[in-house]
């Protein structure tokens, strides 16, 4: 099984407690743990782990989101009243945390970040505009006006390796570091299957038609709340027509070129995605399949 960053948290989500106010309140004692966040960024302890405090560290008036159980203790995160939420990508501090924390620690942080971010951006009802309040331990918001119920969202994104004649199609976006290439990716649209999204995105971005699509692996990506769905497809031809509004470059790369990049050869034709990205794991899977 592929071990991927932001997946595999050790916390027990304990869904049965979310709907039991008495059980939830019983966990809010001196034993409870509060995940320390600086805004939405993680706070790392001297031993290189996520730092936890107690509920006494929470600001008065903040909402508390129930993350789950660890060793029978309730684990929570704080939605501060001043927090506005963010749709921005990860900043340098978060990238550093990705390199330092284990996949399991990143999974705990990523789940908390997505949830706290969602609450900070959904304090008002999308139906009637009234205030909403936290419900079900933080896994729902309820409207104080119309009674509408709102739930944390997850946005599906396909990310795919496309092969033709033993070569991989990879692209680079303008925001990537120099010479870094990755798998093509795009959001799944309403009324569209994963397979249809893969075929559409590859054709839109690179002008290439693909055949059958197969699933490889997935990764939660909390910036702000995506689920990366890793797929594989074979191209029906190798002629490229690049959409330069999406990609700066795209090209076909041989197995030897991909292997060199994955081995960290900086003199090779391109640089591989970092190990915490699912694209890195997809390339590793392709080299070893």
Would you kindly provide a written description of the structure presented here, covering whatever features stand out?
The protein is of the alpha+beta class. The chain has seven helices and 15 strands. Strands 10, 11, 12, 13, 14 and 15 form a six-stranded mixed sheet that branches. A four-stranded mixed sheet has the order 4-1-6-5, covered by helices on one side. Strand 13 and strand 14 form a beta hairpin. The protein is globular and about 60 Å long. The mean pLDDT is 95.
Key attributes of the depicted protein:
289 residues; alpha+beta; six-stranded mixed beta sheet; four-stranded mixed beta sheet; globular
Catalogue the unreliable spans.
Answer: none
Largest sheet: 6 strands, mixed
Total E-strand runs: 15
CA-based gyration radius: 21 Å
| Helix-strand string | HHEEEEEEHHEEEEEEHEEEHH
Count of individual helical segments = 7
Task: State which percent range the strand residues make up.
Answer: 25-35%
Q: What best-fitting shape do the alpha-carbon axes yield? A: globular
Distance N to C terminus: 13 Å
Mean pLDDT: 95
Computed structural class: alpha+beta
Q: Which percent range fits the helix content?
A: 10-25%
């Amino acid at each position: 099984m592929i071990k991927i960053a932001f997946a595999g948290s050790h916390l027990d989500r304990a869904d049965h407690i979310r709907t039991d106010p008495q059980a939830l309140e019983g966990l809010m004692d001196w034993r409870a743990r509060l995940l320390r966040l600086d805004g939405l960024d993680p706070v790392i302890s001297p031993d290189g782990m996520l730092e936890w405090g107690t509920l006494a560290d929470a600001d008065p008036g903040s909402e508390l989101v129930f993350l789950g159980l660890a060793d029978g203790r309730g684990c929570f995160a704080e939605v501060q009243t001043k927090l506005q939420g963010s749709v921005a990508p990860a900043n340098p501090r978060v990238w550093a945390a990705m390199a330092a924390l284990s996949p399991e620690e990143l999974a705990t942080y990523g789940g908390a970040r997505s949830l706290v971010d969602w609450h900070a951006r959904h304090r008002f009802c999308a139906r009637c505009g009234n205030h909403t309040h936290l419900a079900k331990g933080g896994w729902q918001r309820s409207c104080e006006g119309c009674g509408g119920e709102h739930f944390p969202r997850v946005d599906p994104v396909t990310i795919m390796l496309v092969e033709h004649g033993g070569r991989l199609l990879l692209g680079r976006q303008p925001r990537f570091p120099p010479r870094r290439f990755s798998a093509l990716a795009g959001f799944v649209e309403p009324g569209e299957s994963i397979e249809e999204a893969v075929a559409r995105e590859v054709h839109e971005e690179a002008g290439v038609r693909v055949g059958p699509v197969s699933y490889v692996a997935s990764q939660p990506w909390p910036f702000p709340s995506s689920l990366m769905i890793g797929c594989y497809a074979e191209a029906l031809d190798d002629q490229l027509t690049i959409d330069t509004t999406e990609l700066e470059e795209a090209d076909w790369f041989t197995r030897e070129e991909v292997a060199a990049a994955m081995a960290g050869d900086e003199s090779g034709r391109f640089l591989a995605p970092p190990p915490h990205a699912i694209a890195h794991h997809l390339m590793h899977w392709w080299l070893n399949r």
